[in-house]
Design brief:
Oligomer: single chain
Number of helices: 12
Strand content: 15-25%
CATH topology of the largest domain: FAD/NAD(P)-binding domain
Distance between the termini: 29 Å
Number of strands: 20
Shape: elongated
CATH architecture of the largest domain: 3-Layer(bba) Sandwich
CATH class of the largest domain: Alpha Beta
Helix content: 25-40%
Radius of gyration: 24 Å
Length: about 500
Amino acid sequence: MAVSDILWPMTGLDIPATFDASEVSGWSDDVDVVVIGFGIAGGCAAVTAAAEGARVLVLERAAAAGGTTVMAGGHFYLGGGTAVQQATGHDDSADDMYAYLVAMSREPEHDKIRAYCEGSVEHFEWLEDLGIHFERSYYPHKAVIQPNTEGLMYTGNEKVWPFKDIAKPAPRGHKVPVPGDTQGAAMVIALLLKRADALGVDVRYETGATNLILEDGAVVGVGWKHFGETGVIRSRAVVIAAGGFVMNKDMVAAYTPKLAEKPFVLGNTYDDGLGIRLGESAGGATKHMDQAFITAPVYPPAVLLTGIIVNKLGNRFVSEDSYHSRTSGFVMDQPDSAAYLIVDEAHLQRPELPLIKFIDGWEKVEEMEAALGIPAGNLVATLDRYNSHAAMGEDPDFHKQPEFLAPQDRGPWAAFDLSLGKAMYSGFTVGGLATSVDGEVLDRNGEAIPGLYAAGACASTIAQDGKGYSSGTQLGAGSFFGRRAGAHAAQAVGV
């Protein structure tokens, strides 16, 4: 095979071709580890493999490093007793963190969760050694992300029923010291690039992986394309860290169609599923491809959570104090993915993030019920039941936290539309390649494919759906398992 035979992968659902090493007439490079993509996972894999002594080459399709990571606010979901948790007086243990993450998982992979929890403090220290100094401060309010530089807040459902009864709650959302809700993680990429340069990692921009090269069932190389140039790299291990598939309309339609019904996505141009499809080309299996993080946060302000969220039948279906993507995930399950937030005059404030649509206000609940198309009497009954229990500080149906319990009995009443297609939902995919705890890509029999690894958004690790998501899971797990993949790859090739 000549380098001119290397095929640029097609879009859509197409699986790139693989080539046998015997067909390669010449190699452009010979290295120990190739990493595909320099986001949080790829960067951590690259510097870890290089620190182990491996010769590492990174292929990055974009003109700069970062991928979707640079868009993130900068939360890392970490616990077990980090220095920030200790400094702010929040007791936590690896066992409590493990119990919580297991309870939140659709199909818990116990070895991954256990490794993540038991290694969380060490990973925190590694990130600080990289150059991140998490502020020893705590943000106590209900928010999507800290507005300033506080180092810690609750970013999941730790205090939400039933999870508050399963594991001792602790805040685990560690934010980098960058104010605002976007681009905080860009500083992490800058630090990873600095570390990669010091370790001699070769990063080639505007150069994309096209195909995997196989030999006796093992991955031994990668085809590449740089504008009009093509070539083939000989490699003893390949780590795929090329993002999710939210920008691939055909994959979204096939796997997560509700992601097509939103005004914007949380992703970059290269979140097109290529990494996943490259893994599949070598026999890699996938997991949770039908799941996604989809959200339109109701809060802040937190006072809105004292209201009730009902479906088109007028029934509550989720504890309103849930993390925003858990609430949104349950909205997706309702008839026509339709839902409404109902609050009375005493608790009405406009959302700080105008993502849910204000519909109108009504002097009588019966009028609101009719205007929303809810069957007569249903919303009245639901609101009456909620109000009577809230007046006693109770919520027997969903056990909402006491601080968010308040009767909604002072008219007029307002309704906000949380329905898919009405509220401004955004999201990203969470499914990806099946992997071992060390990032090895697994085939359909659960066997590791020699020489092939995956990490980050193209791999299935901790986050399995939106209902069980906690902010910081993607950056936390991407960096943690990226490190494990890089270390295992380096050790496997004998450096």
